[in-house]
DNA sequence: TCCCATCTCCACCTTTCGATGGAGATGGCC
DNA sequence: GGCCATCTCCATCGAAAGGTGGAGATGGGA
C-alpha cells in the first residue's frame, strides 16, 4: 500500500491556488492528482467517482462548506482521509473540521515539503496538527459551549442589533435577551457586547461574510 | 515592446500559492517569472535586482505590507507596474492599493486566463479593475475620511475598550472620547459602537489580526 | 421519578452610551 | 487676517446596556 501511488483529490475554489496545488503535487513521485473540485457539491460528486486516498480540502467553499463535505463523505466511505488546507479560519472552524474527521489541518503558508510530508503521513494512517493549531484548539476546548439560543443572540449582536431589535427578531422579551447576553458574555469571557462581537468574528463563530449581506 | 517577454515578479507569502503562480505563469508564452519574494522587505530587494515589468503582489505580507512596498517602489522606479492579487481584504485595502499606484486588483478566485489577460493589459499600459471591486470602491468613495484621532478611538473600540478606558489610553477626557465617537459613528454610517467595530473589521479599517495580540 | 439544562420572563438598580449644543485652542491655507 | 478642520473639554439628558437574584415551564436523560 505504501509503495503504490497516493491518489489525491484537490478541493479548492480559488482557481489559481487549485491549479498551483495540482501542478505542485503532480511532479511529486508517488502522488497523483486524480480529481479537482471548485465547490462543495462538486467535491462530493468527484469524490464518488474517483475514490481518492487523500482529499485535500479548503473549508470555505461555495455551495457547501468543507466541514459538511467531510462529514457527508466520511459517512459513506469509511477509509476516506481528509487534510484541511486553509489560510486561517478562526478556532471554530479548526475545531469543527477535526470533529468532522479531518486528519490534518494545514495553513497555506507552509512549505511544499511540509505539505507532501503531511500527505504521506496521513496516508500512512497518522494524524498531523501543527503546534500553533493545536495550541488554539486547546484554548477553544477550555471554553464553554454556547446554547443554540445564545448563539442566535450572539449572531444578532454581531449584526449590530440592539436588545430591543433582537427581542423582536427572535420573538422573545427584552428581558430574555438580556439573560442570554449575560450568559454568553460569561462563556466567551468578555465584558460587553462589542467584545462579544469581535470575539465571535475572530474565532469564526459568526462568519465575517454574513456581515455584507443582511439577509443570509 | 509588446513582442518581448514580459518579466514578472511574484510577491506572495503563502508558499503553495506562490509556487502555484510561478508554475502557472512560466508555462505561458511571453511571460517569464524573474523573481519571487515572500515578504515586503524581500520584495524591495528582489525588485531592485531584477527590475521586472510587472509585479504581482499580495497585500498582506510579513514585515512590510503590500501597499507600502508599492508606494516605495513607485517612487524610485517610474515605470513600475503593479497588480494586486489578493483573496479579499476589505474596501480600505483596495482603496489604498490603488491610491499607492496599483494598476489592477484581482481576486485569487479568478481564472488563469483572466490573470494572464490582466498581466498583458497592464503591461500594455492599461488599467484593470473588476466590476465587483469597482463597485465597492465607489461606495467607499462616498464615505467621509476619519480623522487620525477618530481612527485611534475606533481602533480602541474594536479592541473592546470602554469610553473610560479609551480616555485613559489616549490621555484625553471621556468627554472628548464621546465627541470623537459621535463623529465617527456618523462618518461610518452606523448607530453604535458595536456596529462601528464590525464595520471597521469588515472594511479592513482595523485589521482582524490586531485582535489576537493585545499589544501591537 | 427526579435532576438538569435550557428557555422564558420579571423587577430593580447602576453604569455606560449616545445625542445635543455648546466653547476655546491650535495650525494650516487662502 | 480670516477661514476651516481638528482636537480638546464641558454639562445635561434620556436611552440602552449590564448585573443580580429570582421564578416557572419544558423536555431529555439517568
SSE inventory with pairings:
Two copies of one chain form a homodimer.
Chain A: E1 6-11, H1 15-26, E2 31-37, H2 40-50, E3 54-57, H3 66-76, E4 81-86, H4 90-100, E5 104-107, H5 112-123, H6 131-142, H7 148-158, H8 163-170, H9 174-188, H10 193-203
Parallel strand pairs in A: 1-2, 1-3, 3-4, 4-5
Helix pairs in contact in A: 2-3, 3-4, 4-6, 7-9, 7-10, 8-9
Chain A binds a DNA duplex (30 and 30 nucleotides) through α7 and α9.
Q: Total strand count of chain A, please?
A: 5
Q: Largest sheet of chain A, if any?
A: 5 strands, parallel
Oligomer: homodimer
Which fold name corresponds to the CATH topology of the largest domain in chain A?
A: Rossmann fold
What does this protein look like?
The structure is a homodimer. Chain A has about 220 residues and is α/β, with parallel strands linked by helices. Chain A has two domains: about 140 residues, 3-Layer(aba) Sandwich (Rossmann fold), CATH 3.40.50; about 60 residues, Arc Repressor Mutant, subunit A. In chain A, helix 3 packs parallel to helix 4, helix 7 packs across helix 9 and helix 7 packs across helix 10. A five-stranded parallel beta sheet of chain A has the order 2-1-3-4-5, sandwiched between helices. Chain A is about 55% helix and about 10% strand. Chain A contains ten helices and five strands; from the N terminus they run βαβαβαβαβαααααα. Chain A is elongated. The model of chain A has no long low-confidence stretch (mean pLDDT about 90). Chains A and B meet through helix 1 and helix 10 of A and helix 1 and helix 10 of B. Chain A binds a DNA duplex (30 and 30 nucleotides) through helix 7 and helix 9.
Amino acid at each position: 500500500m505504501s509503495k503504490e501511488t497516493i491518489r489525491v483529490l484537490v478541493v479548492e475554489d480559488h482557481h489559481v491556488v487549485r491549479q498551483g496545488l495540482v501542478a505542485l503535487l503532480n511532479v511529486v513521485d508517488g502522488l497523483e492528482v486524480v480529481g479537482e473540485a471548485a465547490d462543495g457539491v462538486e467535491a462530493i460528486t468527484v469524490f464518488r467517482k474517483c475514490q481518492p486516498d487523500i482529499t485535500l480540502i479548503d473549508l470555505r467553499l461555495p455551495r457547501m462548506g468543507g466541514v459538511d463535505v467531510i462529514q457527508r463523505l466520511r459517512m459513506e466511505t469509511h477509509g476516506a482521509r481528509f487534510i484541511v488546507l486553509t489560510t486561517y479560519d478562526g478556532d471554530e472552524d479548526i475545531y469543527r473540521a477535526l470533529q468532522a474527521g479531518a486528519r490534518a489541518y494545514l495553513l497555506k503558508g507552509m512549505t511544499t515539503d511540509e505539505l507532501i510530508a503531511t500527505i504521506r503521513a496521513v496516508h500512512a494512517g497518522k494524524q498531523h496538527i501543527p503546534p500553533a493549531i493545536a495550541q488554539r484548539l486547546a484554548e477553544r476546548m477550555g471554553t464553554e459551549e454556547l446554547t443554540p439560543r445564545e448563539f442566535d443572540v450572539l449572531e444578532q449582536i454581531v449584526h449590530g442589533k440592539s436588545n430591543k431589535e433582537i427581542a423582536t427578531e427572535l420573538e422573545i422579551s427584552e428581558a430574555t435577551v438580556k439573560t442570554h447576553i449575560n450568559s454568553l458574555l460569561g462563556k466567551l469571557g468578555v465584558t460587553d457586547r462589542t467584545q462579544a462581537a469581535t470575539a465571535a468574528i475572530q474565532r469564526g463563530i459568526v462568519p465575517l461574510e454574513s456581515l455584507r449581506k443582511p439577509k443570509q
